[in-house]
Structure formats: structure tokens, C-alpha cells
Fold this protein.
Amino acid sequence: MRDNSLSTIANTQLDNSSKQCISRRTLLRGLGVSLALPSLNLMKPAMALAENAASSPTRLAWVFFPNGTNAERWFPKGKGTEWELSPSLEPLAECKADFNVLRGLAQVNAQSLGDGPGDHARSAAAFLTGAHPYKTAGSKIKVGRSADQIAADEYGRATRLPSIELGTEQGKDAGDCDSGYACAYSNNISWRSETLPTAKEVDPLRAFQRLFGTTGSTDARSQAMQSNILDFVTDQRKHLVRISGADDRRKLDEYFNSVREVEQRINRFAVPVTLPEGVTEPTDKPNGPTEHIRLMYDLMVLAFRTDTTRIATFMLANEGSNRAFPMIEVKDGHHQLSHHENKIESIEKIAKIDRYYSEQFCYFLKKLKETQDGEGNLLDHSMIVYGGCISDGNRHDHHDLPILMAGKGGNRIQTGRLLEYPQYTPLNNLFSTMLENVGVRNVKFGDGTGQISV
Amino acid sequence: MFKNQTTGFTLRAIAVALPFASFTLYLANPLHSQESALDSRISKEWTEVIRPILKEHCGECHMQSSNEGGVNLDDYQDLDKIRQHASTWEQIRGVIRADAMPPPENSALKAPDREKLVAWMQSALHDVDCGCAPPTPKVTLRRLNQVEYDNTIQDLLGVELTPSKAVGFVSDDVGNGFDNQGEVLTLPPILLEKYLQAAAYVAKEVIETDREQLRKQRFPGARLRHSESHAIPLYLAAGKYNVNVRMRFGDKQPDTCKVRIAVDGAAVTELDVPSKDENYKHDVTLEKGDHRLTIEYLDDAEPAQRNENNRRLIIDSVRWNGPEEGLPAFSKQHETIVIATPEQKDTPESMPIGIAEAARRVFTPLLPRAYRRPVSTEELQAVVGVCEKATAAGFGYEESIRYGLQAVLVSPNFLFRTENTESAEMLDDYAIATRLSYFLWSTMPDETLTQLAHSGRLRQPEVLKEQIGRMLESPQAEALNKGFFGQWLGLRKLRKIEVDKEKFPLWSERLQNAMVKETELFCMHLLRSGTIDEITDANFTFLNPRMAEFYGMQFEGQDPAEMAQKSLGKKGNTERRLGLYDDEEKWIRVELQNNRKGLLTQAAVLALTSNPTRTSPVKRGKWILENVLGDPPPSAPPSVPSLDQGDHKADASLRERLEIHRSNPSCAGCHKLMDPIGLGLENFDVIGKWRDRDGNSAIDAKGQLVDGRTFEGPAELVSLLSAKKPQITQNFATRMLTYALGRGLQRQDKCDIDRIVHHANQNSRSIRSIVEAIVLSDAFLQKAHLSPTEKPTEAR
């Protein structure tokens, strides 16, 4: 890791004596376009939102990997507390007591259901929504609301940002993404509304600035002007020329809803985030996928630790990603390999990639675990789902999904187990259970039918 | 200059003037919405002919309780349902046509029935009765994409900024193959945050608050070769200025070179500059306005040594100080926008006009340009109100204008291309100007288009055609080249493909750039004066010395290898190439040799579909079917059966290995469509270079298309494809209409496509005639044919 990474975050114990406000110089270092922002105000000491909130809130995160797995190597054997880590999960040995593996869960709406090919697009779209995406190359994209955004509505209100959405790959430049599905489906797991993907940040520096900088201004009169501009914008609705048709109105609703959301946040943005000592801005150009992934994990730890947000989603890569992994001697693309045709060589390489992702996830869990949070550590106060929406990449199965959930959710969950549910149990039932645990009650969405016991 | 005004042209007047035969008929009964005779016929055939055939041959796996592959034909009881699931039915049509379904090993489906099914599906999915006035589908409100946003900011404010990069916008999603599709250009909260940041950034860059700091300006230097010059544009107040250039002639040169410092072409001084850094200062008195400072490397005492690397004029820095008296000018873009100040006293009462009036004067010309239409007093007042609030809060005048500008740049009227309809059916002139401008230039309309819209003449077909001509000739048409061709052909992806450099040592960033440039120049030619036919038939292309050597051709009678810059190695006599060519940037049009023809054999297009270590005839074939002929093979089934590794020898050629596809009946159907085309291009390697052998095997580029016609190699293959001009034209028109409209095409659009193709055929299939016909099409000019029950609603 380079100096400008966030790697020191979780190792720094957060106690009152070491809290300090980030110096302007530090934050702006290397910030080529810092002038773009009216000012980044982290200097003014003030009560962070976190301190107004309950002592140890539960954090929710969903980490997604694409293209399925080598199922043979991914799924562990055993039952209950008597189980062995599988080869692909073996890098998680240190944290084995901190997560459960959940078998039997499904997202049936990722299946074709008469829509023909396009399992990759459907997988990402269905992963957190449990809904069947409408097949379209570019008109009327529609799937469903995602679990994280349902949580963000209520549970996200207490924090500076209701949720964050991270990734490592931009969308495509041209062409279609998967067999007649618009690229929005493959590139997003988080859906603000059933027609509006939340869009993700892939640049660690921008994500850092969004989380911890203030895009508003320092003084009251500049802030008042920000509000004036948003008032002006809200008032524009009546000046809009004749808008006809439901589609146009939907687009404008998207816009005005976003205005309202930003408006609600604008005051929170004026309150600076108190960052732990030693935190500096991350690079905007990570050196390879490993650094990129780890920086994003660092940001999630930091965001949770400072209670800047309690809800995060992270796409390790876009669904159908054809990224190569030269650092683990896999020079072929992930997607290409996932159609392994049962060739031994390809299957081996997929197992390597699965293992690689497990290693990175272990990095994340360890950071969470090392970070003190109230009476325990961050991991104890989290529920982190890690998985994908295809079981075996060659077969494109969307049941018996590779899913694990880390963290004790605030001592509500007993970890260290291998849990088996009846086949085709909706994955959404797990999400409803998580939502219930953070006080978002009785949510049934997508194909969910209720809750499950974890 | 903007005010509402009705035009003297009615819809019918245009209809008469348009070259489309069916147009008048179409308008004659625009609101007819009964099921057409065509649909009745298609429905009847479904019940009586098609469904029974499907039941007999497909029912076992795809009807009642069986839904193999997720397809159950019982889900589709009528034509409407089938059309709602058009993509599924395209796939069904594809696999039946390719003999891939029913499974060939036990299929009893005979050719005549197969043809019936295919023809019926084609008709059900695509045919439409144009006489029956199908409604033109609406274009969903389009947000500016990143390219359009940046271009619009640049043209609106006269600045060279790329806010999408500076602020880091989240990426726009691509739909229907393009990044300008209204439906997928969503606006989540994170993007609104970015727009707010971008507006603040732009306002700050454009409008200055402290002109005193402009009294001392410093500009970067340059390194000049003989006869080159370094130019710096300046925008100045009247007064006396001092220019201070720090420079030297090469490193340790014994002699000097002659340098001229000039303003607006008039010499300020001429100097002999030696090899030691020195400051050269001179005074100059100038009028208010634009000026251009140049530092020119005029002459060299030793002409013979001119081209040597160390005989360069090295300018360290250029300082510009002044004026000696009075205030410096703001930047040009600032002064162009901030055209009034509260202090000025040009009212009859000779009182200062004040903030509100000054802001009004600033935004009166700016706001209609930002909203791309006339604005109401109320709209103007809303922006002035923001400025007034800023002043009331204690901000200075310029800062207040900044806030006003920020507000404008996040208004939905700026960020979205809202379109006003003049009547229930037709866009107003400003909306037409905007559609035209974003289609051809990816930016806001310029002054000419705005004036034409204002005078109500823009919608006249002759005026539109004239404007299309003007706009395609303009350098801004590069936006259409990069936006449309770059995405249609996928050139944007070329920079991301991975090639094994050990196997293909020629592959370099310079070569990639040159390949893309070749194809861009070719496409620019197509846009301005080319035809559809040239896509397959052109016997010319555009090359620089690098591409000439790559293609094994002469460059202006020279061997391009001779033009490669070389240096002697350290040890003396071995020459080493430096990686650059003389005249690297010189691009010329050349006649092609026999082995290449048109677009399909250009290196960029050939390299696009390759795997890192070998060509992929399958991908090449699929690429041509899909992108050029508009006839993609059906998607591969999710679980591709394994190619049995034991069936061929380890050293089998690619062709031999691909034979397996065609010997396995469930692969054969689709692969016999794709593979022969790809194999016919096997003479071109991974990066598009000609080859006669691949490893140990000689290239065999013979083949037979699925229609039975045979070819001996790439040139003959391309001529066979060239016979498919109707398909190529139709596909091109479809793609370009999709780009122009920003929405996916639907069945009803077939009427417009047919007219566009017809118009093209009558005009030698020129690309320009296609652009013209698109702009004059119903879909482009009209928002919608509204049914009597659907009235336009006011916002809110």
C-alpha cells in the first residue's frame, strides 16, 4: 500500500484524545481539482452526527462479486458449528468465527423466465432487489427497489449520507452489455427506485471527498446561498415547458427527488466529520485491482467508524466483468473463464479468483474487527453480506447462491456456523431479516415471503 | 432576439415538400388507431398456421408444463403479447432460421414450414401498416450526457473546461448501443451533487472577482524547432504593457538563432538569442481587446544543422505585466458574460443601475442560450432573484453573478433537453434547432441555428438541408464522428483490448491511435461526401507513414520504412529506430491494393474482435452480422456444450478446430452463419496485419456463405457482402436514427426507416442523404402523434 492509502485507519484506535480535525493542507494535498469545490470544510471542530446517535448502531453492507464461482471449491462441507472451510474460503480462516455461510438461498428472478439469454445482467439487477428486470436494451429500464435503499430511507436518515455505493469498474463506453439488456442492469446492484439505479463511485478519491468533505461552504451566508440555489431549482418545475407523457414526468421526478434528497442532506454536509488521526486522502488512480478494492474497503471501514453512513454496497466488479488477474497468474478474463465448459484449467483459474476475492474480503473483516466501536468492535456491530447471484458460472444457476454473512449485528446473530435453508428460499428473506434487525419492520419486497432465522 | 412567433408553414406544406411518397397519405388520417388489416392478417395466420406448426414441432419442450430454457410458447396467446416480448421472439426466430431449433438431431420440421415460421415472425415483429398512421413513439426527456454537458458549457461560456473530468461525474449508462439515450440517462442524487459541484467550479473559473491579480500574468514556455512559433492569446485593457521572455538557444551552442517577438503579427523586436538563459524585456502599447503574442524561431545561422535535436529555441517562461495605468481587463469570457455593472449610470436619470438591473442585463442574453429557447420575464427574474439574494447576503457583484450562473447550470431547463411543441404534434423551431445541434455536434445550437429558429425558417426542408451541409462541413461534426461511428463500430473499445505484445511486437499505443485515426478519417469522409457503398467497396483509405508501413504500402512514392526516425546506437554503426516517423502527422488519401477494401478490412475494425493471442473468426463473423448487416445470430445458449478436446490434433489449425462447431448439429446452425465470414478474413492477424501463414499452417481463407455463394479470400468475401446493400443501408439508417433520437426504435419506426432508405436509394445511398432524411423524418421533427384522448398536460 502506498502512503496515501487509508491503510492506517482501522489500526488507529479511536479514542477522544486522538481525535483531531483534519488539516486543510493534508486533505487538499494532491487534489488537482480542489478548486472545483467551493471549499472543503473539515477544519471547524463541531459535534459530529455520530455523537448524537445511539452509541453503537448496526452497520449494513453488501459486497458483490460477479460471474459465479467454482461451486465445488466454494461451498464448505459440514453443518451448524461443525464445518470446515472450503478451499476458496480458506483465506477467511482468521475470521471463521465471525461469519455464517448460508446455503439454499435463491434469486429466482435472475432466471430467464422466458426472457432468453442475459443471466449476467439479470443477476446484478436481481441480487438486492429480488425482482425480475424488464428486458430492454434502453427503454423503460425497470427492476425493483434494493434492500440497501429500503434501509436508507428510514435507517439512513440519522447519518450524513443515507448510503454509499462503491465499485471498481466504470460502465461501458459503447455497445450493449448482455444479450439485449441495457448496461444499467449489469453495472448496478443498488436501485433507488425501481427505475433508478443509484450509480456508484469508482474513484476512491472522489468517494472520500463525498463522504468526508463538505461540498457546501464554511460560512453561514454561503450555505444560505446553497439553499437559495436549491430553492430556485425546486421552483423551476413551474417554468418547465410543456411536458407530456409519463416517461418525461418520471425523468423530472427523478430530478426533483434528487434535489430534495440533496436538500435534506445539505445541513448535514455543513457538519464536519471528525476523522481519526493519520487519515489522508486516497489516490484517485489505484495501482491495480488489489489496491483499488482495498481502498474501497478502507473507505467503508472509515465511513462506518465515523458513522458517516451505516449502509454500503460494493461491487467488486461489474457483472460479466472480463477483468484479468495477472497478480495471481490468471491472464484470461473472468467472464470468459466462467464459461469454463468444464475444462479443468478454467475451473482451476476460477477457484483462484474466488480465493483472491476471499483474501480481499478477509482484509475488510479484519479491519472491521480491529476497529473499536462502543463496547465491542465494528464487525460485531455489522451485518455484511458477501456473495454473488450466480452459483456456478458455467451453468448460470441462480439458486443455492454463494452467500455468507459476517458480523453479529449487535449481538443478535450467532456466527461461526454453516446454515442450510430449504432450496429456493428467497434471498430477499435474509434481507428482510437484516432490515428487521435495524428496526425497519415488516418489509417484504421483490419475491420475498418473510424472514428467516439466522 | 427571442420572442414567440408563429411560422407560416403548416405541416401539410412540409409534407408536400418532402420527398417521401407516403408522407401525405400518412398525415391525411393521422389519428386512425383501429387494428390494421395487416395485423388482422398476421393474427389470423398465427391461429391457423403458425401455432399448429409450433405445437407439433416445439410443443414437447416449450408448451404446457414444459418450459425448457425458460421459454413456454403458451405464454404468448396473441400478437400483442408476442410483440411485448419482441426480444424473446427475435431469439426464437433466430434459432429456427439457423436450424438450431428444434434440436437438429431429432427434428421433423421441414424447410417450407421453417420458412413459414421465420417469415411470419419477421412480419409480426417488424411489419407495420404505414398507411394506418401508427403513432410515432415519444422521445423521453433527455439529460445531457457527459460529452454534451462539457461541450455545452464550453460553447455557452466560451471556455476550455471539461467539468465532467474535473469534478468526476459518475459514468453515464449506455442503452441501445449509445450513451445518449433518454431512458437510461438517469439522475440519481449523487449526480445532482456532481452537477452542483460542477456549476460552482465552472462559475468560479469563468467569472473573476479580482482583476488586480491579472496585472501580472505568467505563461508556460515551449521548445521550438526552426520556423515554429509559440503563440499566446491575450485579452487586454488599453494601456502600456511589458513582455518578458526568458529563453535560450539550445544547449551549449556556439552561435545564436534569430527570434522575433511580435504582437498581432507586428514585430515588437527581433533578437539574436545565444545559448545562455536570459530575460528579454520589451514595452508595448495596445488597444483594448484580443491580442496575440508570438515568439518565433525565425532563422538559424547554420541552416544545414537546423534539424538537429539540440538546435532548438527553448522558452522557459513568458511574463506579461500591465497595464501601467488603469485596471487590467478581466478575462474575455468574463467580459463577454458580465456585460453590465451596478455602478454604471446609463439610465435617463444618470443613477447607478444597481444589482438587479445589472444582473438582468447579464442574464438577458445568457439565459435563453442556456435554456436553448426564449425565456419568460418570470424565468429571468428567478435568476436575478438569486443574484439579489447573494448581494443582500453581503457578496460582491461578481460573486453574486457567480451564484446566478450556478443556479442556471443546475436548472432542469439547462440539464435536460426540454422540448416545446408548437402544436400538439410538432416540435417548435427551437426544439428542432436543439435536436439538430445535439445530433450533429453534441452541443447547443449556435447563433445561426438560433436565428433560423427565431425567424421560423428552420423547419423548411431546404433550410434544414442547407444547415446539415454547413454543420457536416464544420470541424464540430467531429462530435458526430466520435459519437456515432465511435460507438457504432466500437472504436472507443479499441484502447481497452488486450493484445499479447510478445507475439505482436508492433502493437503500441501509437499504432492503436493511428488505426483509430485511419478509421475516423474514413468515417469523416463518409459523413461529408461518402456513400453506404463505400463501406464495403471503397478502394481507398487514409494513411500516415506508420499505417502505410503497417499495410505494406508506399507513402507518396517513398518507402515508409525509410521515413522512420533512427539514431545510431551507442556503439556506432547499428541503426536503431526511434519509434517515430518523419511526417508522422501527415495523413493522405491513398488507393488500396487488392487485398483490402472499404471499412471491414481496416486494421482498427479487424483488431477490435481479436483475442489477446489469436484471431477469433467467430467474433469477427458475429461482429459483421450484427453491426454491418444488422442481422445478429441468436445469442449463445447459457450452457455451451463442451468442445471435445480429443477430437482434433494438438497442432490443428484454427479452421480445423472450428470445424467441430459445424460438425455438432446443435452448434452448426448458428456457426455456419458466423464462422465462414470470420474465416474469410483470416489473412488478417490479431492486429489486422496481412499474413499468408498462421504458425505452421498456411492460411485458407476460402469459404461459402450460408446462402451458398462461395469466395476465395477476403476481397471476394467483401464483394459478396457488398451485394447486401439493402441490408447494410437499412441497418445503418436504424443505428443512426437511434443515435439521433436518443431512444430505441420500435416497430412503428419502420415507416420512417423505409422512407429514409428510399430517400437514400434515390440519392446514390450517400450518407449525407441519410442524415437529411433522418432530420426530416416524422420521428425527428415531431414529438408524437397524439391520439384524441391523450392531451398534452402542463407540468404539475
Summary: Chain B touches chain A through 103 residues (CB under 8 Å).
